[in-house]
Specification:
about 0% strand; about 80 residues; mainly alpha
Amino acid sequence: MIGINRAKAESITVDRLRVEREPLLAELDTSYLRALEAGDDASLIIAEKQALRDITERDLSALSLTELAALTIEKALPG
């Protein structure tokens, strides 16, 4: 019988989410700099960036292996 290492599955999922969020953070960095240059409020951008950072700190232990495999940034973001 083939066993699945739960800790390794969670680690792989977190690594995949980091790769997935990388271009989103880069895009938000650009938006943030533009907002600063224009003197606009950047608080929403800051909150979005923090939400993306927090994704990899999420407790994944309640998810099934199928849910881990299907987890994406969009599914992991609150709201």
